[in-house]
Specification:
With 334 residues, the protein is α+β, with helices and mostly antiparallel strands. It is 52% helix and 13% strand. It contains 10 helices and 10 strands. Strands 1, 2, 3, 4, 5, 6, 7 and 8 form an 8-stranded mixed β-sheet that branches. Strands 9-10 form a two-stranded antiparallel sheet.
């Protein structure tokens, strides 16, 4: 996809979100009218572009579930995904542990629009094994935390799986986690860009000592730091889109979470008291970014897991490897 096509698609998506707002059903219909299936059939990496625009717009949608279930080859109708809360020891495929005949579930589920009939729970017995648990068997409780508009519910309970719940995906759960992390990284970058834009507009208009505060060196340094972090994360997403490995996806997710953290902290700093008001809108970006950061491994968890992985490799005498951006050909938006 060429730069002009990327810009055209970005403008179409922004116009779509401006028109339909945050209505999940309306967004799905509008994407169908836009011919989204044809777009991603020709260029699958357009998904990351879509999720970056979702982050910019600050809307909550069920599309992460759709892409995860599509990767697994499971019908997405009336099905939601239970995302494990804790990374535990498994960097690439965090899943529900099994003890005897019991599965311990600690997960979050996004429930926007119609309630799902079943929830997919990944289990650790084998790479493609999943449980498709009827919602009636789960104690789903709304999450009353930072991102109250995100539509999140939490399930924490032990289950004795019924044989009818057991399903087998056409791909491994680690592949689905990689896909989800790439899209979450793109959404976090979109949120970071939205925070930076709000801050830049504020410091351009706000004046002190007869000058726009954006002309002050300390303010400019903070915004420059945020911009550098955002572009580093965007490059990591570009590499992950082409490399398509679980490792590159995890790296992109970690860098995107760090970029969002830098952007919202620096935006809050330069916006001062105005940035803390309900009317300003920065608070919603902060809350959504921190909620998404913890999903499928926070920046801190992933960095710790990377360090542990590298230490094990060195101890075993293996070479520590990572994707090399210089060896990855340009792709979407490059």
């Amino acid at each position: 996809m060429q730069t002009a096509e990327v810009k055209e698609l970005q403008n179409s998506l922004r116009s779509l979100f401006d028109t339909v707002g945050d209505d999940p059903a309306a967004i799905s219909r509008s994407l169908d009218e836009l011919g989204w299936d044809e777009v991603v059939a020709e260029e699958p990496r357009a998904w990351t572009l879509l999720f970056e625009e979702i982050g910019r717009a600050g809307i909550a949608v069920q599309l992460l579930d759709v892409t995860v279930l599509s990767t697994l080859g499971i019908d997405s109708r009336a099905t939601a995904v239970g995302y494990p809360i804790t990374l535990m020891e498994n960097l690439f495929a965090p899943s529900a542990p099994i003890s005897g005949n019991t599965v311990t579930v600690h997960a979050v589920v996004r429930t926007l629009g119609a309630a799902p009939e079943r929830v997919l729970i990944p289990i650790a017995s084998e790479p493609t094994a999943v449980l498709l648990v009827p919602t009636s068997e789960l104690d789903l409780r709304p999450v009353s935390g930072l991102d109250q508009a995100g539509g999140w519910t939490q399930v924490s309970q032990r289950l004795t799986p019924h044989p009818s719940w057991l399903g087998h995906a056409t791909a491994g759960w680690s592949d689905a986690v990689a896909s989800a992390r790439r899209l979450l990284a793109a959404e976090l970058v979109g949120l970071a860009r939205a925070a930076l834009q709000l801050a830049a507009e504020h410091v351009t208009q706000r004046r002190q000592f007869g000058k726009a505060i954006g002309s002050f060196q300390a303010v400019r340094f903070r915004l420059a730091d945020a911009k550098a972090a955002i572009e580093a994360a965007a490059e990591a997403i570009r590499v992950a889109d082409v490399d398509s490995t679980p490792l590159s996806a995890a790296i992109a997710k970690a860098l995107a979470g760090a970029a969002a953290d830098t952007a919202v902290r620096n935006a809050a700093q330069v916006c001062g008291a105005m940035g803390l008001t309900w009317e300003f809108g920065l608070h919603s970006i902060i809350r959504r970014s921190y909620a998404l950061d913890v999903l499928l491994g926070s920046t801190a968890e992933l960095i710790t897991a990377f360090g542990r992985r590298a230490a094990y490799q060195v101890h075993a005498g293996d070479r520590v490897t990572a994707p090399d951006p210089l060896l990855v050909s340009p792709c979407l938006g490059g």
